[in-house]
Amino acid sequence: MTSPRQGIAFTLDGVDELTFARILRDVMSDAAFARPLQVQAQQPRPGSSARLTLAFLPQDRAAAVQATQRLKTVLLRYGVQIDSVHVPGEA
User: Fold this and answer.
1) Whole-model pTM?
2) Which position among 5, 6, 46, 90 has the lowest Cβ density within 10 Å, counted as fewest Cβ atoms?
3) 52 touches 10 (CB < 8 A)
4) Helix 17-28 to helix 61-77 angle, to the nearest 10 degrees?
5) Of the given ranges (6-10, 29-33, 78-82), which has the lowest mean pLDDT?
6) Distance, CA of 35 to CA of 19 (rounded, Å)
7) Which residues on adjacent β-strands are paired with residue 7?
8) Which residues have a Cβ under 8 Å from the Cβ of 9 and sit 6 or more positions away?
9) pLDDT value for 23
10) Contact assessment for residue 24 and residue 10, using Cβ atoms and an 8 Å cutoff
11) Residue 72, exposed/middle/buried by CB under 10 A (0-12, 13-18, 19+)?
12) pLDDT tens per residue, range 22-78
């Protein structure tokens, strides 16, 4: 039986489509986000913010936390303010 994936979700308020595409390009070319991690992306749409989720299996939690720090760096490069991050298992 496979363990369910968990995810660290980033909501990117105010990010336009071009900036989101640039962020996604940087993330997808960065080894910090390689397997066993999985990046799930939701483009910005009218009325909803862009979203990036770093999905991982429970045994890969340490790699996911490290990748989260790298993702914060990428987002700051584009001037994206990080308002909230949801990490499963943390209050």
Assistant:
1) 0.84
2) 46
3) yes
4) 140
5) 78-82
6) 24
7) 55
8) 51, 52, 53, 85, 86
9) 97
10) no
11) middle
12) 999 999 999 999 999 999 999 999 999 999 999 999 999 999 989 999 999 999 999
